[in-house]
Amino acid sequence: MEKILVTGGTGYIGSHTVVELISAGYTVEILDNLCNSKESVLDKIFEITGVKPKFHKIDLLDFGALSNIFREGNFDCVLHFAGLKAVAESIAEPIMYYENNIGGTLNLLKCMKENNVNRIVFSSSATVYGDAGNGACHEDLPAGHGITNPYGRTKYMIEEILKDVSVSNPEFSATILRYFNPIGAHSSGLIGEDPNGIPNNLMPVIMRVATGEIDELSVYGNDYPTADGSCIRDYIHVVDLARGHVAALAKMRPGVKIYNLGTGRGTSVLEMVSAFERASGRKLPYKVAPRRAGDLAEVYADPSLAWQELGWKASMSIDDAMRDTLHYLELCV
Ligand code: NAD
Ligand code: WQD
After folding, report:
1. Which phi and psi angles does 199 have, rounded to 5°?
2. Nearest protein Cα to ligand 1, atom 35
3. CB contact at 8 A, 154 and 102
4. Which of the residue ranges 107-111, 115-119, 192-196, 205-209 would you say has the lowest mean pLDDT?
5. Is residue 152 within 6 Å of ligand 2 at its C-beta?
6. Containing domain of residue 22, as a range?
7. Of these residues, 12, 26, 129, 151, which one is catalytic?
8. Average pLDDT, integer, range 158-187
9. 3-state SS string over 141-182?
10. 39: domain CATH number?
11. Is residue 126 part of a domain?
12. Is 189 helix (H, G, I), strand (E, B) or coil?
């Protein structure tokens, strides 16, 4: 069976994908510097799958250590999750973001080239649609215009780098997966989202309100042109997202392919509050706050291409994600 190197494999999406890869029969090695994850995730992966993947605690910016892993690895493919992802931090620390995300990817691509590893799956984001992404996003929309932060620009730039590498090497296969808003946790309750520091994203904030670490949720705006006035996003269960990677791996061919991974359904912030209340049986304290700069009213995926070409579509609901999040937080009712 194929051997896959998963960068960022102890992180939120990476760890769920490692579980699905192992279940599908792949041999997995994980590389992570643990800047936003914990080594104990490996034990949880073992509890779920019965397999503890080989782990390399290294930084993608450490070219020497990365080269050594590749020399010994004999990898068939790389799944590249490792990166920094906090939008507000990227505005405060742009150099760190460009160095880590782009520098790390360039080191990875150099090692892949030196060792004749020609397949990569890259974690991109709906953020690359920029201001073109108001409403349903199809992969054909022009990307890269009106991205509001350095984090988002690193994702777009890496997409462009992968296209250039593909032009230079006819054997190179890159699958770019544009995630919408991943939420939820593994149904075992053993792995889930556990961000360091103050969260920015909606679901981690809801989780901290649920555990009492934050008093109330600020709903950023209730005067958008949507049914209830709050913003609409496409929240996708992280296990559905993880399975999208397994589907993509099986269909890789030379060249660059881009797929949205989303549900195609939009949910408003206030509907997310209601879903939390349904799942937990308790009220979620919130207040309406001013709009957040850079937010678009409504962003959701057109996921039809992934269905047509990969045979993948999301099957779980917001309620499933809320239930699994509560299980992970040990807040089951
Ligand atoms: P995460 O922070 O949980 O996981 C990223 C992992 O990469 C972490 O374990 C971190 O320690 C590791 N890492 C970061 N820089 C590294 C480096 N230089 N060397 C080695 N390891 C490094 O984040 P996530 O939510 O699992 O996101 C995974 C990928 O998906 C990221 O590339 C992110 O940009 C992308 N993405 C995430 C979302 C989202 O909302 N979570 C949406 C779209 C795209
Ligand atoms: C969702 C909705 C907020 C927090 C971001 C990144 C994007 C991608 C996904 C990685 C919005 C509202 C949020 C809060 C709120 N990440 N909200 N109160 O903005 O769709 O995208 O995460 O690639 O790059 O920009 O997700 O979770 O931040 O917000 O009302 O405390 O929740 O206004 O409408 P977003 P989000």
Report:
1. -75, 150
2. 123
3. yes
4. 192-196
5. yes
6. 3-183+236-262
7. 151
8. 98
9. CCCCCCCCCHHHHHHHHHHHHHHHHHHHCCCCEEEEEEECEE
10. 3.40.50.720
11. yes
12. coil
State the ligand closest to the CA atom of 193: 1
Largest distance between two CA atoms of the chain: 56
Is there a domain that residue 306 lies in?
A: no
Q: How far apart are CA 140 and CA 143, in angstroms?
A: 8
84, 96 contact by CB (below 8 A): yes
Residue 331 has pLDDT above 90, yes or no: no
For residue 80 and ligand 2, the question of a CB distance below 6 A is answered with: no
Q: Is 45 exposed, middle or buried (0-12, 13-18, 19+ CB in 10 A)?
A: buried
Supply the pTM of this predicted model.
0.98
How many domains is the chain built from? 1
List 158's β-bridge partners, or say none. Answer: none
pLDDT single digits (tens) 268-310 = 999 999 999 999 999 999 999 999 998 999 999 999 999 999 9
Q: Which atom of ligand 2 is nearest to the CA of 292?
A: 33
More confident residue, 133 or 130: 130
User: Using one digit for the tens of pLDDT, what is the confidence trace for 230-239?
Assistant: 999 999 999 9
Work out the percent of the chain whose per-residue pLDDT is above 90: 95
